[in-house]
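Workshop exercise sheet. Pairs work together: one partner reads the sequence aloud, the other fills in the structure field after running the prediction. Swap roles for the next sheet.
Pair: D.N. / O.F.
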Amino acid sequence: MKRPLDIVILGLSLSSSWGNGHATTYRALLRALDAAGHKVTFLERDVPWYASNRDLAAPDFCDLVFYTDPYELVSKHAHRLFGADAVVIGSYVPDGVEVIDVVADLGPKRLCFYDIDTPVTLAKLERGDEEFLARRQVAAFDIYFSFSGGRTLDRLRDEFAARRPVPLYCAVDLDAYRDTGAATEWDLGYLGTFSPDRQPALERLLIEPARRLPDMRFVVAGPSYPDDIDWPANVQRIEHLPPGKHAEFYSRQRFTLNVTRADMVAAGWSPSVRLFEAAACRTPLVSDWWEGDRKFLPGRRGRDHRAEQRRCRHGIDEARRRTTQSTCRLRLSTRGRRAQFRGARTDLCRGNRKRRRQDRSRHQAFRAAASGLTRKENGRWLKETKQAEERSSWLPAGPALSDRTFVQHF
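Structure field:
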């Protein structure tokens, strides 16, 4: 390993998972960085709604420091920001535009952005909404880590002038998220904060089926749902579920529902952290469709949501369901190893000029070696090579490899 890095991250929240999915992603990523020997400082804006709902006030894997406003951030922590090997600013940081400007003015060694909401961010920028990031600032980052892969990376580079867009999918701590062996309590459940653009899918895939199947048991956990929602009697509501109870929650479901925000469905290649959490707990998933889902979800894709739901609830016996459980975690745990094995052929080396030149040289050598083949064999070889490169190029880093994806670029 190279020398340990000193990394400073300014994110939405690490101390509280209330109403956001950022905290669990940051916790898994930072814990892995700490285990790899790197020093991480997390700077979090001290806001009342997270202060009153903190479930990790003193992490043992990083230094967690609170600040009150951008002025205090610079006056008290300029030395940290200037001396760090890399400064990473996350999406939805309060007063994000001002924070980015003042940090950039300090001239850090490497300034990066970690967008855990990339499709939403780009949609906001297209509307002229610069809540936490200004369009002019995208080009200022040395690296733009993106929650989404696929064509979103091309958009970041071509439309928004990002210098080095790199996919960094959500992470999950496989030690914290696993099947607890708890007795099944619900047939179908969902974990997520209320979002207007997710609610129609939740209505269609969980609430309406609950009305039609009064003998089945359902659960929805998460804050901010309006009081006027007509919840069926067989749907249990949990206002807030801290991360320490997530594994137990998933383990008590026969199936869990994954619902994706509209902007992320449109962009594709945007798996939510809940998808990884459920898979780590070996809970079979029922998910809406989005481009790239087959790279993250094992099994075939259903054409009819209602038919698939009926099949999942009534047409799968317990032995088949448990086989699906094992497949979920196996797919999740081996994904990182496969990406590690492929090494320089993955996104881990994206942007590294020296290795890009080496890759081109290897590719030219391969083509030269293929010249002795027949035209038909050569065409087949080139097609298979291209397909293999496309598969490895967009291969998710996986929970076991997210920290390596992160530090490889520094």
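Discussion prompt: Residues 46 and 68 are 5 Å apart (CA to CA). What would you look at next?
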